[in-house]
Design brief:
binds pyridoxal-5'-phosphate, globular, 7 helices
């Protein structure tokens, strides 16, 4: 079954959907994106994700996206898709067709919505720390831009080592985030996640965990991850996923008591409100 996709206001068969080969999203990664969870055919936390899309676009100095039109695109794609128990919505917004270099074009932006089913993540994660730092001082630090080449390379590095996610430190040698996830650690009984100044993305799941389950934002050395009593990843598609193994170091418990509580509270609160 071909699930329609939405491109610049039109719902179309994916086989018929086209984007210009001059699109700057494709040519130089000049765009932003969002991934939103589908639960039983409905979106989760859509307002927060659309707010972040707007913010990412501003941070990249892109023209303001038409959020109302994109939200309509999301609704139309969901209507046309099966009511998957678990799925994902992908929104991509780029500066549109442009010249062959880094200058932007003026032919209008490109907006795309795609929906698909999602397989649940494994019950626990193994992670591999990668040797390349996040640049917390870079122009795109914390921006969900389509320039994800370093994440693609890092995730491949982790997968080659049998891990499911790669973890970045930053230039200051502190813990930062995963390629598609934020990270929480339990140190001396305290639940801690890196600050936004660490260069990590302001994850929607991270924010909800902080609100619902507590925890503090604090920067810790990357090495603290190996010494954590517990650790977990958060992301739209994972919710709260315990970490069992960091490189060759097995953590004492996965999930330990703090993670177990976070998983339970997150499941309860998210089931009670689809757009928190
Ligand atoms: C680099 C990065 N960090 C963190 C996250 C987690 O953010 P969220 O909870 O909003 O999915 C993502 C999401 O895919 C990401 O790409």
């Amino acid at each position: 079954m071909n699930i329609p996709v939405w491109v610049n206001g039109e719902l179309i068969d994916p086989a018929q959907a086209t984007v210009s080969v001059f699109d700057h999203g494709l040519m130089v990664g000049d765009g932003v994106f969002e991934t939103i969870k589908i639960v039983n055919g409905r979106s989760f936390a859509l307002t927060r994700h659309l707010d972040r899309l707007r913010l990412s676009a501003r941070r990249m100095d892109l023209p303001e996206p038409d959020i109302e039109a994109i939200a309509d695109g999301v609704a139309r794609c969901l209507e046309a898709a099966p009511a998957w128990e678990l799925g994902r919505i992908r929104i991509t917004y780029t500066s549109g067709p442009g010249p062959l270099g880094s200058d932007r074009g003026d032919q209008g932006t490109t907006s795309i919505v795609i929906v698909d089913e999602q397989k649940p993540f494994p019950a626990t994660a193994s992670v591999a720390v990668v040797p390349w730092p996040r640049n917390e001082r870079g122009a795109l630090a914390g921006v969900k831009s389509t320039s994800y080449g370093d994440n693609a390379k890092a995730l491949l590095h982790a997968k080659k080592r049998g891990a499911g996610e790669a973890i970045f430190g930053n230039l200051a040698g502190r813990l930062c985030e995963g390629t598609g996830s934020n990270i929480f650690v339990v140190l001396d009984g305290r639940l801690v996640t890196p600050t936004l100044e660490s260069g990590c993305l302001a994850g929607v799941t991270r924010a909800l965990v902080l609100e619902w389950c507590g925890g503090e934002e604090a920067d810790v050395p990357l090495s603290a991850l190996y010494e954590a009593e517990e650790a977990f990843l958060t992301s739209t598609t994972r919710d709260v996923q315990p970490i069992g193994l960091v490189d060759d170091t097995e953590l004492p418990a996965a999930p330990g008591p703090v993670t177990t509580k976070a998983m339970r509270v997150f499941a309860e609160r998210s089931a009670g409100d689809l757009d928190p």
